Amino acid sequence: MKYKSVAIDGPSGAGKSTLAKRLAKELGFIYVDTGAIYRTLGLFALSRGVSPSDEEQVKELLPSVSIYMDYGPDGLQHMYLGGKPELGGVDVTDRIRTPEVSDAASKVSALPMVRDFLMDMQRGMAQNYSVVMDGRDIGTVVLPHAEVKIFLTASPEERARRRCAELQERGTSIAYETVLSDIMERDSRDSGRSAAPLKQAEDAILVDTTGISLEESFQLLLQTVRENLA
Q1: Which of 208, 156, 164, 210 is nearest to 183 (CA)?
Q2: Which pLDDT band, with edges at 50, 70 and 90, does 193 fall under?
Q3: Are 113 and 12 spatial neighbours (Cβ–Cβ below 8 Å)?
Q4: Domain ranges, ordered by start, for the chain
Q5: Which residues pair with 31 in a beta bridge?
Q6: CA 3 from chain center: how many Å?
Q7: Of 113, 154, 147, whose CA–CA distance to 133 is shortest?
Q8: Which pTM value belongs to this model?
Q9: Per-residue pLDDT at 168
Q10: Which residue, among 5, 18, 32, has the nearest Cα to 215 in the 3D structure?
Q11: CATH class for domain 5-228?
């Protein structure tokens, strides 16, 4: 059996996780949120008092980190620190969604050795399942031969509004201006880093969801993928 891959890249807050998750369910594929893997490592660094941007400190940390990814009864991807849950691993799926961890994830993901360290985990999923995988460098680095590559984006202002609404639903209220500033700073950092910078692959299809609803965004994405999935 030949497994198929859909690679979805794009900036922070573009709705990749939400839309990719639903797309995978519609296609009957496994959903892989690679950002959650980096977030888990970022959380681990913070919990150990390590600066996520300090290359030497993070390098020393890598041998001691154990990240496990699984799918719960709800069909959603769960992230564990410390290995499998039956071996004492702790489910950190909710804890990795804070702005502080998002910032830490962006910083550790800029380190080449971190990307190399986590590459096998990501590629291994695509070798064993048909996947919808989202992140910052899936179509350019992780899965360069994916059957379909999408670059999903929206304006910074649109993404800031969506992120504010998402955080409010989780009981966290942050000023729109602060969220917008964080998003623009992260865009700059992700696009300008030397290791696997955020960019649209030459053969990726641009899907811009600025000004349209979540449902309209999903239908546009689904139609685009179905038209191009061999």
Answers
A1: 156
A2: confident
A3: no
A4: 5-228
A5: 132
A6: 21
A7: 147
A8: 0.80
A9: 86
A10: 18
A11: alpha beta
